[in-house]
Amino acid sequence: MDILVSAILLLLLLVCPTVFAGEARTYEFDGSMSREVLDNYLSRSVTHLGLCSDFRDAPPEQFEDDVRMLCNMGAKFIGRAAYVWCPWNDGEYLDDVVARRAAYVHQKDPEMILQACIFETTHTNVAAIAVPDWVFEEFGVSVETRSFCYENMLYEDGKRVDHWAKGASVPDMSRIETRMWFYYRARRYIDLGFEAIHFGQVMIMDDQDEGHQYWLDMLGRVRVYAKQHARRHFLLCDAHTSGFAENGKLLFDFHSFPLRPKDVMDKPQEVILEKDYLDSIYGKSMGGRTPSGWECEHLPYLVELDNYGASEPGKGGLPYWSWGWDEITWFAHQTEEYRNQWLRYAWDWLRENDPNGWLQMPAQRCLTGAVDGRKWYHGNTRSAAAPDGFNQEETIKAIWASMETIQTKDSRRIKAL
Question: What is the pTM of this model?
């Protein structure tokens, strides 16, 4: 039996060496990213909404404890670290708060990838942001003195106008003003040290983009700039999708999607993961040739505890809702014991059912319904610096450590053959 097991382990090492990378886990890349390094980063991914943005007017001690938590856990990919949903005149803010915080994080751990977000939204107040000359020049448009134009980013047939609120709409990627806006935001983030950008619900910005030519145009320009100016000459691009490709070439470096838990109707507040439930991504991440040049049958992806509102809190069986809440709000309403148990369950379920997927651990996210007066979920261990912590920090650290232990044992066993 030992001979058979050893033979199987040796075969796995040859077929999928990254599974046994426990002793030589690498986060090195420059100009492109291998499948191994991508999986290493995604396997140490957290959602930490606004780490570098400080929209909550949190005291400096909270930010410092957030970074301490991330380093303690061993997090390497910090999702949604900077974003805006409603834009403002952002020059001074980006150059001060966001730049300072990003530099602090990289001082603590230069390997960390910080992700920014450019979401599926545009607002009338983009008119407060001047279009730099370099944006006009990039798109071959005559330089003029003006601000970004909200109306020129919208679907001309009126589709999804005021979709989010009055004066807050879904932009149309086929409009050059939209591509200029996205390029502007992406370049600003790259200059501040961000090495990943999440582009939101790409499908609702794509209605007038046959063959994804306009998405490819915008992403291509952003990637060219990153090749020259990013910290490690590479930018990870993802979106809320199971995949888009043209001629076998994938648009994104990895995919992202909500977890889509399913209510267990005879066990109030409990949820499970299940393939083919609603529009879940499990087993469906599109494959092809990645922007880094390697081929895959299924592109690696992240699933996260998403936030998007509430329907009928406490009522089970509602599609897209976890007992009437969005996913992170449901999670925050559970007991500490069940939260810890569920993270272990979700991690193990993914490893067993679709190893292309990685659980993006919750570190910070806004809540739809307050929990004991707390309007944000924080994974931190509760302390004087993080009085609103939900205490998942050590559980996440332990889950990741157990993966390292298993990989290292298997690697050593193979080397001993």
Answer: 0.91
